Structures are given as structure tokens and as C-alpha cells.
Amino acid sequence: MTALISRVRAKVSGKKLHRLAEAPFLMSALALIGLGVIWASTFHLTGELTQNVSRSTAAVTSDVADTYEAQVVRALREIDQTLKLVRYDAQRQPPDSAIVDLNERDLLPPSLLFSVAVLSAEGEILAAHGRFSLDQPQEHEFFRHALRSNQLTLSRPIETEEGPLLYFARGMTQGQTSNVVALAVHAGYFVSGYDSATLGERGVLGLVGEDNQFRVRRTGDAITVGASLGDVGSKVAEVDTPSLAPLIQHHWDQTERYTVVRKLFDFPLSIVVGLSHAEQLAPARATARDYYWRAALASALLLIIVGVLGRLSWRLHKARRQAMEERIQHARKVEYLAFHDSLTDLPNRAYFSRTLTQSILEARRYTRKFALLFLDLDRFKNINDSLGHDAGDELLQEIAYRLTLSVRDSDVVARLGGDEFVVLLPEVLDSLQVAPVAHKILAACAKPFTLAGQEFRITVSIGITLFPRDGNDEQTLMKNADMAMYHAKEQGKNNFQFYSEALNNDSLERLTLESSLRHALERHEFRLYYQPKRNMKTDQVTGVEALLRWQHPELGMILPMQFIPLAEENGLIVPIGRWVFRTACQQSVEWQAQGMPPMNMAINLSARQFIDEHLLDDIKLALKETGMNPTLLEVEITESMVMRDVEATLKILKELKDMGVRVAIDDFGTGYSSLSTLKQFPVDTIKIDASFIHDLTRSVEDRGLTEAIIAVGRNLSLNVIAEGVETSEQYEFLRGQACDEFQGFYGNEALPAEDFSRLITQITRDASGPPPR
Amino acid sequence: MPRTFAKIIMTGLLSAMGSLSWAEIVVVASQESPVRELTAVQLTDIYLGRLTRLPGGPAVLPLDQVEHSSAHREFYQQYLGRTPAQIRSHWSRLIFTGRGQPPKAVSSDAAMAEALKRNPNAIGYMDSETLPEGLRVIDVES
Fold first, then answer.
1. CA A496, CA A444: separation in Å to the nearest integer?
2. How confident is the model at residue A674, as a pLDDT?
3. The model's pTM
4. Which of A482, A490, A486 is nearest to A465 (CA)?
């Protein structure tokens, strides 16, 4: 059982360790790993996303630049083409008719945006298509410059009422006269390809002249002219990744853009294209933010799940641990119950057996001695029967308590069951050491108890064995201690006895006797002897007392005192008693049939018989079967039997009286019955104990007591019989005291049935002759 | 009560004046033109260069008046709901990106009438008071 507990414990602690590794740590690790995965992948994704967007934005910038370049070049070529066409036509006819002619043939650009004019060297408009005016000084300056140049000339943006204009011009020399063909277009025309779908609201589209000044620049819907490009061009030139536009800070609006600055072939212009980094990345950033939110949400969810799981796991763990604790508690309880007596809390027989075995092994190993005290309460059964089991239990508990107090803590006290206790004294040197302990126990138990409100005294009998002297194993030690205890009981109880070989022999004899006693009834070895009772005055035989004898085939005649206690112990007294009643009644009936006068037949009841519940039925049956007159039957019970349980006795005695059976109290004077108690009992006869009669002539005290008993009997109108009258002095004294009857050697000894009938026959014969004495 | 009544009359007068003011510019075409009527959407699409042929019908050629004429300004304002600047910006983008050419512009109602008579597929606009013989007003459903 201890092994079971330790095993359960080991399992618990093992699992505990295992769980420590399992629940909280595993959960935390899981949470960390989960969070790591979530955030790593989120950062990776968003990083990838922004990187992709950056790269694609740079690529888009390049694409837009390609397209824009092509558009600008085409627009410039168309413009140049128009200038050349007008110049050509104007050289062949007057300028105004040339313009009209070209317009009618749809060869001039739409006047909605473009205006074309032929100017004289002095700056007069010779012919114009569309609204062409020369109001600004810069315009005149430009045309003077163009007049001198044979190339396509491009003006700086010039602010007019129409908004900023760009002028293109070519000189025209015809003979001696030099004219200028000019074309004006809104600066915004060159950035009208600005597409919000690709460039957004923060992109840049622009044209820059060789003076590093913007001819026009557009961001969103805002068109500006004339600002400086600054160092943007040189910065772009530093980067040598032509396919991907570099990211450059634009000083004019503090915006970072993927920027392309490209010089145009054939024209003194560069295009500038830029896509805002922040703007283009905005959707990606929104997506990234979305990812972060989702990651945060997933993290929260993960933490919640892990938290819930952790909590559940913790609860489970707690529940399991609790269940385990309960199992241990239960196992402990089971173990305790298995090895302890529930009534007294002392170790029980099983536990003691183990302890004893262990002690034997140790004593053998270290050549030590120990003592075993076997205790049995004297007359415990009576207490249990008369006061009830609860009182008996209480008594046992008190005894257990006293025993424990009487010995040292290192000594073992155990209850073997019933009223049997055992004490183990480990490490004693010899029997001299044990005796004081035994004395102490006897003294402790002898102190009065209060049970069910009554004060009681109880004694114990102790048998003692010593290891290894009185036995080398558990069984022998226990058996011999038991035997020694019985010896102590035989020695008058309330004492202790050491085991000896002789005891063992006695016990063997006892065993033989007991086994043959069991067969005595069926082998018809019992005999009844009849002791005559005589009337003191008339000397008449008034009746007989039936006395039991055992005719043992080997041991010869055995007296009741030798086997009755044995029969009482093993319960054989009941069938034997039944046989006695039947035989005695039968005899009485037979004698009357032989012609003898009806005589009183007294039969002794043992204590055990008296409390047997079938007693009355047995007597009735004997009377019925034999046909004996109940009034002739007298039952003798001892004074101590009567006093044991007054009420029960009273009940039995009344029933006997109802049947017509007489009742005698045997050994009267040895007990302590009070007169008042005696008065309650329906008693017919009291018999003075032989011990008083024996010392009658020598002891004044006994004489006085005898006188008193006779007086009491007379006062209560009881028949008084003296037992064991052996001498004439005794006889004379009793006769003087007016005792009613007597029995004893002075009269007749106990006789077999035939001898008794002979005696009666002789007395009857003598009665017709002279009197005997 | 009389005051409310007066209000109603005033509102009626004002709206009549409003309709009078935009009734000055009309969409016109040659008498031979197969086009009888146009929806406002169709007219807008035609003048913005998105529609060159009516569904199941003939090709349509829009004619414009020069940008600084009042007819131009009023036509675009009333029929297309756009300012001349917006129109210029629109064509500027189309021309620059090479995706279209604006309608050919004439400098007067008379020139418009001439051009329309020459081309039965053309449509144009002018002051209703200067509407000459041989041209027909095209109904524009709003």
C-alpha cells in the first residue's frame, strides 16, 4: 500500500515536471513563434510591396518619359513643319494670301491653340492666322533675335493676356528683305499630355531650355513657367540606371520624385518627368497599413487563443492535480483503514503481524531479544452482554488509550480483534524487564471505568513470550503468548504469566480433554450421581441433588470442576445440561415407578446455561418427555449468577415459578446480594455454602454468618439447606439453629442411581424397625 | 395670398427671360442635312470629337466659330456646359497626344452659313436672328 502511494506520488511529480514543460512554456513558445511568423511575414510582405511599387513607379516614370519625349518631339516637328511651310508659301506670294491659302487647304494648325504670323524685320505683322499680337517688349526682342538666326528659335515663356505663350520662329530671307515666320502656342500645350491616371496629382511634366529654366512645368492642374530646374538635372545624370528613374528631391516643391530628365534630339530642350514617391506609394502604404492592422488583429487573436488555451490547460492541470491528490488521500485512507482498527485507532492484526515479522528479522540479525504481551480482558463478554455493545466499544477504546499510555512510544500496541490486545516491547534483555511493564498495564486497566453512567472495574490477563526463547517465529510466539494468557486466566485472572514448557504440556492435556469432551456425550461417558438431602428434624431423605460425573475411559472419573469450565468455554455445556435435565427427570420418574416416595430433584445450572435463551424450552421439553411433576424439580443457581443481571434473572425465575419449578440459590453467602434484592426473587430455597459449614466449629465469624443466613431464610419463609455437613458437631449446631435440611458426608455421599434406590429401600425397611441413630 | 401669387408671376417672367437669353444660339445644318434632331449628349460628343457618325446614320462634321467670338462662348456654355478655357484644354490634350483635331473654326455666322451650305453633313451654330435661308435649326433634346 505504501508502495502504491509512492508510485502514485512518483507519477504525480513526474507528470508535474512534464506539465511544467508542457503548459505554460509550450504555450508561450507557441505564442512567440506565432507572433514571429505573423510579423515577419507582414514586414516581408509590406517591404516587398513597397519595393515592388517603387520599382514599378521608377519603371513607369521611364515609360512616361519615353512617351512624353515622343509627343514633345512630334509637336515640335509639327510646329517646325508649319513654320517651314508658311515660309515656303510666303516666299512665293504675298504673306496674307499665303496664309489664307494655307488655311483654306487645312495646312495650318488649329487656331484654337496656335497662331501663326509673318513679321517684317521691323516687327510689323504682315499676315496672321489666329490671334497674334505683339504687345510685350520681350516679344519684340525675341523676333529681332530670330531674324538674325537661321535656325528654329524658341522663346522663353512670355506672359500675355492669353496666359504664358511660347514663340517659335524662323527667319525668312527673300532677296533684300528679311522677314520672320512665327508661331505662338500656349505653354500649357506642351504639358497637356499630363495624365492624372499615371502621374497623379503630384507628378511633374515639364520642358527645360538650355538655360536650365523651365519653359513650362505642370503638376496636377497647376502650370508654371520660368522656374529653374536647379540641380535636378545633374543629380539625374549622376545615376547610371537608364531603365529605372532615380528618386530625387525637387527643390521647388520639396517633393521626392522618380525623375527623368532627357535632352531632346535636334531641339535645344530637355523633358522632365517625375512621379511623386509619396503619392505613388500611398496605395501600397495603405495596403501595408492594412496588413499591419490584420497582423495586429491576428496577433491579438493568437494571444487570446493562446491565453484561453493556456487557461484551459491550467485548469485541466489543476483538476488533474486535485484528482491525483484525492487519489493519494484515498489511498492513504485505504491504507490506514487496512492497517488500523477503526474502533481504537490502534494498528490491527495485519499491521501487527508485519511489525512482528519485521521485529523477528531485526532481532535475529542483531541477536536481540524482544517481548510479546498478549492481553485479554477478563469477563468482557459479560459487560458487552449486559451493558450493550456501545458500552463495550467505549470500554475497548478506553483500554486502548490506557495501554498506549502505559508503554513507551517505541513499543507497539495493537488490537487483534474482540477484547484481545497485544503489546510488543522491542529490545528487552530478560523477563525481569518485562514484569514491571505488565504490572503497569494491570494497574492501568484496574482503575475504575465509568460506562453508561455506572462505575466499573475490569481486569486483564496477560500472557508473555520472549523472542527467541519462547518461539522463533510469529506463529509460535503468538500461540505461546495466547497459552500463557489462558494460564493467567486459570490462575484467577488479573495477572500475567510467562510462557513455559510446562504450560505447554498442561495445555496439551487440556486439548486432549477438550477433544474427548466433544465425544463424551455421544459415547455415553457422563453419569449422574445423587446426593441425598435430609430433613434436620426427621432425618428423612427429602430429595437429591443431581451431580454430574464424567467416566473417562482412560483418565477415570473426572469431577465437574475439571471439565465444566472447559465445557462452558466451548459451549458444550448447553447440550450436556440438556442431557442432565433429561436424565435426572427420567430417573425421578423411574424411582416413583419403583414405588419410592416422590422426592425433590435438584439440578445445578452453570452460568453459561443460565443465560442460554433455550434454557426454559429445554426444561419444559425434559419435563414433558419424561412426564415428571414440575413441582419436584428444583433448579440451583449460584448467588453470583443471580446478581449479574437482576432483571433478566427475575424474568427467568418468574417463568420457572410459573412452570411450577422450584428455585434454589446455591453457595449462598459467598456473594454480596442484599436482602432487598433477594426479596424480589421468587426463591424457594437457599443453600449455605460448604465453606461456612466447614469452619463452623472453629470460626466464630462463620458461625455467626451461618446463624444470620438461617435467620434470614426463616424470615423470608425460605427452605434453608446446609451443604457439606461432615461432622456431628456441624450437624448438631445446624440442628440447634433450626436449619431445615442438610447434605454431606455426615448424611450420605453422592451415589449412583442404583445405590441410591438401595439406600432408600433400606431406610424404608429400617423405618419399620428401630431408628438408625 | 396676393404676395405668393406675385411671386409665381415673377418666377414665370424670370424663367421666360432665361430661356430667351439662351435661345439666341441655335444648332443649325443645311436643309439637305439628314439630321433633324440631336440629344444633348450626342451634341456634346460630336463637339468634343468623340462621335463622328450618328448611330445608323450619316457622318457628322462639326463646325466651330473662332474662340473669341461670343457665339463660341455661348454655345459651349449653353449646350456643353463648358468654358472656352476648358474646351481649349480638352483639344490641347487631344492634339498634343495625337488623338484628334478640333472642329474647323469659322470667324462669323455668315462664314458658318457658307460652310454649312457647302457640306450637307456639317452641323454648326449661330445666332438665331442671323439664320439665313437654306439652313435648318436642329432640335437639341436636353
1. 14
2. 65
3. 0.51
4. A482
